[in-house]
Amino acid sequence: MSLFEEVGGSQFFDRLVDRFYEGVATDDVLLPLYPEQSDLSGAKERLTLFLQQYWGGPTTYSDERGHPRLRQRHFPFVIGERERDRWMVHMMAAVDELSPNETVHQQLTEYMTMASTAMINSPGATI
Question: Residues 72, 78, 82, CA angle at the centre, nearest 5°?
Answer without folding.
Answer: 120
